[in-house]
Design goal:
This protein has a 4-stranded antiparallel sheet. With 122 residues, it is α+β, with helices and mostly antiparallel strands.
Amino acid sequence: MGQIALEGLEFFAFHGYYDEEQKIGNKYGVDLYIKTNLLAAGESDKLTETVNYEVLYRLVAEEMRAPARLLEHVAHRVLDRIMAELPHVRKVKINVSKFNPPLGGICHRARVTLTKRRTQPE
């Protein structure tokens, strides 16, 4: 078992509880952590034996383009997509951050973290 991480992904997107947030947009950050078996890729040096970083990025980017009211919803969609499309993934953890959220004061970012684990082996 091993971990693949994509950290510091940044997107401009139109998420937010308030209608004006969905109109003007904001900057968001994503950190993604994937647990999977990396031994075969380590031995073979073949991309087909691991999870392709480009595929992970594409899945996150596609979900970030679809507006949502809550960061929790965005994170949940990403977890579901990864588990549905990448059967070798055992566990996914995601942090989704909104930079400078409209709270009426100084806050560098608001962040949610969700984790999903595959219950049965594929």
